[in-house]
Design a protein that fits this description.
heterodimer; A: 309 residues; mainly alpha; MetI-like fold; 12 helices; 2 strands; 80% helix; B: 306 residues; 0% strand; flat
């Protein structure tokens, strides 16, 4: 009897698990039909010279030539990759803490919350797609114009009405040394950088916080649990699976954002018809990012609390 | 000194907490809004103000001329409608694929699950640019296991139709789809086991359990997926440039603003571009404000979470 019961259970479990294929069926189909060949093709491009002619293109095998060029001949590619790694190492933790902090603040019931939530959603829009491209272009022309207007005002001796220079003169008036002023300005610039790069992370955490039932907090309150304790014992464990998503997304966004220096190099190579080199560069970028993500997933997974292990 | 009662102390600490929260939120809001304020005022400048150096921020002559010229250059009504329909189609299908795949990976232990999980991460990490040439060829000469070649004698040309968008989104290989699958997977993974067990004890099958019990509990995250997906498609110019090069779409037509306004100073072009950007951004903000109301409704409806 007993063995029959356990076999039945196993069968049920087994049958139930087969439903996994049903739910993943669209994804598996998409992989087979759309992604696998496209991926394999562009991987193949990185080992071959692509020769385009009237009726399409042909390939000529070149081995690791393009990888060698990207890694050892191109003077800027490796430097750009190192740049994105060091930038990421500096920003990752700050972005995570900042975005969780803001999401918790915005989750508070307070007057005007809809307005504030809408404001903190704005960085999501300004960092994606064509808006990000236009913003980047705008900030570059702005910078060019600032240098010209600065040199003009230096020539004419006219007072610049810029907010920053105003604060600068204010700080020097209250006898704060220029080096200290620099530190303050760098911090302000840093804050701006973090704010514009955490839009998506904030919304993801916010969705997670919204999924926590208020009754849990009410129960905790009755038990005499303070705000600080509530954060560590309820909020953090329950949003921790989303920390993984945000870690991965922050890394990926750093590496594949079109405004990233590496991606711009890849696009400009692609634009000038060097398909194979641009493809090799994308796969090097992909490999570096893959190692980063794998290590982080391994480390962070140890600290994640799942409701069902 | 007067002794302060415990209740009063609690009240003071509550007010103090509020004040600190407001201070932080207002300061950061200012930093976020500052570029937008410049944009809004800059785009409201009349022609007289464009080269007036006395006008720093607040225009002397308000005018909607930049908005009207941006709208004409963008062919706004047509581009808006097309972008709206395309983004709706893509985001609804992406929510479907994210929910399905995320649920399948999160709640079932089947052979090849880890490989699929790794694949989701890979899809997330591959930028559009890497596979786009190959993707284009894929849809230019589309075939389904040699079926179309057999029947029609040639593969299908799906370029200049919405089919590539629909196929990529419904299978989970659309724009940023890896992020959405991963997000929904982590959410389903964290829902308590009792939820589906209770439903299955009641005799519901896996599909019914998914639809009636699991989906409502993941609603805030799925709405977020919809929101992200909509915004990304709304602003994306990569896939449209590959698949539907002839359509009027906002992210493509905003580039016309720069080229259409010839014979005028760069300041006016930048004012019109700002106006065009605001016209693109505003619908997304409205969408967010409307959608975030549903976040809370999702919870109160389904009741049990955690």
């Amino acid at each position: 009897m007993k063995s029959k019961g356990s076999r039945k259970l196993l069968n049920y479990r087994g049958r139930r698990n087969l439903m996994g294929y049903f739910f993943c069926a669209p994804f598996i189909l998409g992989f087979v039909l759309l992604f696998a060949t496209a991926f394999a093709k562009s991987f193949g491009f990185s080992f071959n010279e692509v020769i385009t002619d009237m009726n399409g293109y042909s390939l000529e095998y070149k081995g690791l030539e393009y990888y060698h060029y990207a890694l050892f001949v191109d003077p800027e590619f490796v430097r750009a990759i190192v740049g994105s790694i060091s930038g990421l190492a500096k920003d990752l933790i700050i972005i995570l803490i900042y975005s969780l902090f803001i999401a918790v603040l915005l989750n508070n019931p307070m007057p005007g919350k809809t307005l504030f939530r809408a404001i903190f959603f704005l960085p999501v829009i300004t960092t994606i797609g064509v808006i990000a491209t236009l913003e980047l272009r705008d900030s570059m022309t702005q910078a060019a114009m600032d240098t010209t207007s600065q040199s003009v005002s230096m020539l004419t001796g006219a007072e610049d009405l810029d907010l920053f220079s105003y604060i600068e003169s204010l700080l020097s008036a209250i006898k704060i040394s220029p080096s200290m002023t620099n530190v303050i300005f760098e911090a302000v610039n840093g804050i701006y950088h973090i704010i514009t790069h955490s839009g998506i992370q904030i919304i993801i955490f916010f969705a997670g916080l919204q999924s926590i039932s208020p009754s849990i907090y009410e129960a905790a309150m009755v038990e005499g649990c303070g705000r600080w304790e509530q954060f560590w014992k309820i909020t953090l464990p329950l949003v921790s699976p989303l920390i993984m998503v945000n870690v991965v997304w922050t890394v990926v966004d750093y590496f594949i954002n079109p405004t990233n220096e590496v991606m711009q190099k890849i696009s400009s190579r692609f634009g000038s018809g060097e398909y194979s080199l641009s493809s090799a560069m994308s796969f090097i970028n992909f490999a570096v990012m893959g190692v980063f993500v794998a290590v982080l997933l391994f480390v962070v997974n140890k600290f994640i609390f799942y409701e069902n292990k | 000194m007067m002794p302060i009662s415990a209740a009063a102390r609690a009240k003071i600490s509550k007010i103090g907490f509020r004040v600190v929260v407001y201070l932080i939120v207002i300061c950061l809001s200012y930093i976020i809004l500052y570029p937008f304020i410049i944009k809004i005022f800059g785009s409201l400048r009349g022609v007289e103000d464009i080269n007036d150096y006395a006008v720093q921020l607040i225009p002397k002559h308000y005018s909607l001329v930049n908005f009207t010229s941006a709208m004409t250059a963008m062919k706004f009504p047509a581009a808006f409608t097309n972008s709206l329909l395309l983004s709706l189609l893509v985001s609804l299908l992406q929510v479907f694929s994210a929910a399905m795949t995320g649920y399948g990976l999160a709640r079932f232990r089947f052979l090849g699950r880890s490989a699929l999980y790794a694949l989701v991460l890979i899809v997330l990490m591959i930028p559009v640019q890497t596979t786009m040439t190959a993707m284009f060829l894929q849809f230019r000469y589309f075939d389904f296991f040699g079926l179309f070649n057999l029947i029609l004698g040639h593969p299908l040309n799906l370029i200049d139709t919405v089919v590539p968008f629909a196929l990529l989104s419904v299978t989970g290989f659309g724009l940023k789809n890896g992020l959405y699958i991963y997000l929904s997977m982590q959410t389903f993974r964290d829902l308590p086991k009792e939820l589906d067990e209770a439903s299955e004890v009641d005799g519901a099958g896996a599909i019914k359990t998914f639809w009636t019990v699991m989906l409502p509990n993941a609603l805030p995250v799925l709405i977020t997926v919809f929101l992200f997906s909509f915004c990304w498609q709304w602003t994306d110019s990569y896939y449209p440039s590959l698949f539907i090069n002839k359509w009027d779409l906002l992210p493509r037509n905003i580039m016309f603003v720069v080229s259409s306004i010839v014979n005028v100073e760069s300041m006016q072009i930048s004012a019109a571009t700002n106006a065009g950007m605001l016209l693109m951004i505003l619908p997304l903000v409205l969408l967010y404000v409307v959608l975030q109301r549903f976040f809370i409704q999702g919870i109160t409806k389904s009741g049990i979470v955690g």
